[in-house]
Amino acid sequence: MDLGIKDLRVLVTAGAGGIGLEIARAFVREGAKVFVCDVDREALSAVAISDPTLARTVCDVADRTAVARMFEDALRHLDGIDCLVNNAGIAGPTGRVEEINPEDWDRCLTVDLTGQFNCARLAIPHLRKSNNASIMNLSSQAGRHGFPLRSPYAAAKWGVVGFTKSIAMELGPDGIRVNALLPGLVAGDRIRRVIEAKAQQNGRSFKAQEEFMLQFTSLRDYVTPQQLADMVVFTASPRGRTISGQALSVCGDTNMLG
Questions:
Q1: pLDDT tens-digit map of 171-211
Q2: Which of 96, 126, 159, 214 could crosslink 113 through cysteines, CB 3.0-4.6 Å?
Q3: CB 108: neighbour CB atoms within 10 A?
Q4: Does domain 9-186+224-250 have CATH number 3.90.220.20?
Q5: Would you please indicate which residues are annotated as catalytic (active-site) residues?
């Protein structure tokens, strides 16, 4: 299927690994021009070898000065922006709310929610010049359900959904589509670390905690980063031109989080 996005100019935050790198690669396969940023310098160095067509720079999306510099680099490479993928995020602490270090709470909210604002506010003036403009904000099933022992992460991801819906309404008259992606349990190192932390907190083995968490998903399986990338690329294409203001679940039918 030709999605009609050859030469689409795409910025992907946290694009040097995991979900972000899969999204960047999916766009490249469709002929898009992609710029990635990441806080992980080693990952960026690896991408320079594995994916040399990806323009890249270091950036912590929680740092507004760094974000401004990153946008200068991105615009120089892309000569404009058609699609912003706000992928950057951290897992945050695991524990009961009264046990959580306030600094860990602040960091999680600043990266996972305020970081999206920091990028969107700079992208929007350029998106207004595009004939196929879109923003995809990464949320989570934790942005739809409660997530015990993960309150900072859940609070941030619920906030992403509200942010997405609000700016979709603001930007719709400008022809800019804005959606949130709500993955379920995504295969990879991050969910492994989350399961390990929750297993320790609950006094369970890793396997028991994994089975406990998967039981709340109808398909009893993980989502792959490639499945998420496919959704992002489709909604950024002209075929997704009337999809906006949506919390798009790719989760195997997750009904709650444990």
A1: 999 999 999 999 998 888 888 888 998 899 889 999 989 89
A2: 159
A3: 24
A4: no
A5: 153
pTM of the model: 0.93
Both tokens assigned to 170: 């603001």
Backbone φ and ψ for 232, nearest 5 degrees, come out as -65, -45
How many Cβ atoms from other residues are within 10 Å of residue 256's Cβ? 14
- What distance in Å separates the CA atoms of residue 47 and residue 53, rounded to the nearest whole number? 9
Tokens coding 28: 């490249």
Give, for 138, the enclosing helix (H) or strand (E).
Answer: strand 133-138
Instruction: Please give the order of strands across the beta sheet that includes 247-250.
Output: 55-58, 33-38, 9-13, 83-86, 133-138, 176-183, 247-250
Q: Assign 103 to helix, strand or coil.
A: helix
Which residues, given as ranges, of the chain have pLDDT below 50?
A: none
Residue extents of the structural domains in the chain:
9-186+224-250
Q: Residue 184: exposed, middle, or buried by beta-carbon count in 10 A (0-12, 13-18, 19+)? A: buried
d(CA 110, CA 118) in angstroms, rounded, equals 10
Residues with Cβ within 8 Å of 231's Cβ and at least 6 positions away in sequence, in order, are 181, 248, 250
Contact of 84 with 119, CB cutoff 8 Å = yes
